Amino acid sequence: MLARDAEALIATFAPDIELRSPVTARPFRGREEVGELMTELLAVLEDIEYREVAVNGDAHLVRFRMRLEGRNVDVVDLMRFDDEGRLREVVVHARPLASVAVFAAVVGPRLARRRGRWRGVAAQAARPLPAVLRAFDAAGARLTARRR
Q: Which residues of 7-40 are buried (b: 16+ CB within 10 A; e: fewer)?
């Protein structure tokens, strides 16, 4: 990831890798599908900074911050590896919701276009989502703040 080398990253995946994203209910499955997702992410990723790693057997928790379209996204990935050391499962947890929506609005259409022009056009519907969620985030902060 740090080298932004999609081919090298994909080479670490088990053939049956599964990635569960906070953006979609359906997981991404297989080296090709997860590889497409990661290739598109690397194309728009502005920055990535790893913060912590915790290991327990075949499970790794990796906490990092990435930057997309000027917005910070805090991420924790739960990763599991197969007996050959290849990545077989990734469960992505990210916050804040408005920043996760940036991921959907930027990477989603790029990925959809790979499957057809009209899918890419349809995926553009997610474009206003980050602004709407930022407004809700700001309103929620004001509503839950203690009065002094």
A: eebbeebbeebbbbbbbeeeebeebeebbbbbbb
Look up tokens 């057997």; give the residue. Answer: 57
- Residue 95's identity, in one-letter code, is R
Q: Is residue 77 part of a domain?
A: yes
pLDDT for position 71: 87
Number of domains in the chain: 1
- Domain extent at residue 30: 6-144
Q: Quick: pLDDT tens for 82-135.
A: 999 999 999 999 988 878 877 777 777 767 666 665 455 555 556 666 566 666
The Cα 70–Cα 77 span in angstroms is 21
Contact 107, 37 (CB under 8 A): yes
